[in-house]
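tool=predict chain=A
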Amino acid sequence: MLTKGDDYPLHQTPEPIAYAGTDRNFYDRYFFNGYAPDGSDFFALAFGVYPHLNVADAHFCVIRDGVQHCLHASRELHMERFVLTVGPIAIDVVEPLQRLTLRVAGEGIAAEIHFTGRAFPIEEPRFTYRIGPRTYMDYTRLTQNGDYTGWIEVDGRRTVLHAATRGTRDRSWGVRPIGAADAQPHGHGVVQSFFWQWTPINLPTRSVFFHLNANRDGSPWNTRAVIANDGAGAHDMFETPSARLDAPLQPGTRWPARGTLVIAAPEGALTLEIEPLVRFQMRGLGYVTPKWGHGLYHGPLAVEREDLVLATLDAMAPTMENLHVQVVSRVTTSAGEVGTGVFEQLIIGPYQPLGLNDYFDTGVSPG
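tool=predict ok
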């Protein structure tokens, strides 16, 4: 089947663009978040394409007065991967790798938001992870901090984005668990665990990125830190695997209480202190949630609004849908800078460095 993508020099195989190899879990995804310098008016958008499942889905969230307002949408893909619209949510790639526009209009939530990159996107190390003999994840991701302009409206109340609104976007593609769960487990006798931390940070004149995927004993299987000055090109950034993030858990949760990130930078160790301001639940974007999980089939088109009162959510709900968070944070550095970023964390199963020996162990109070 020929589609719009076939008129561009994008082919990776001898087949038309509509066909994405042979793995049913292949996906292609956009992610955006943004916030004012004090962490207020946080918003986020995710948009996923799942060629072998013939599904596209999108989600938009904004936090107002302690409530996370979420808009979910899903449609049949019809093998056309160049239509970046799912019901009321759309993305326009204005200038690839530099400028994009987000548009939302449905269920009492509307927005028009424009993103401009601060530097060239970073390409993170390829994420390849196996559980027993089976490949669980194999994907590539680009990440970029940027400035936002525009507005967001919830139930008739419109807010113009703060002049200094910044945030992060990423694009990832490859293989990860999507759609309905596999009925046959990954590797017999293997107890699954997953540990993930990500801290894209916006400082006044530069960006700092750190991520860590680790095994249950704390040994990293994918990690890197990057420092990118504003305007930096693809080859003008500092990157290193020599970085460490110490982050205790909030008692009774698997959410971070704070963090200290130390990066072995060229001018000497750079220390960043991370102080939480606002918590965002990633379930609002389809992450680790049973109803609106990525790639699930909802028919030709489905749209639904969901409002989450953040203070009432059970951090350790049996569904595990509240484990995955992004915490908007104030960041101060040993170089005297003050900025804002997010601290994303997801811990499923055991993780020995934090004393988590089972699926529902949590952080404990000091002493």
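The longest strand covers residues 134-154. The radius of gyration is 20 Å.
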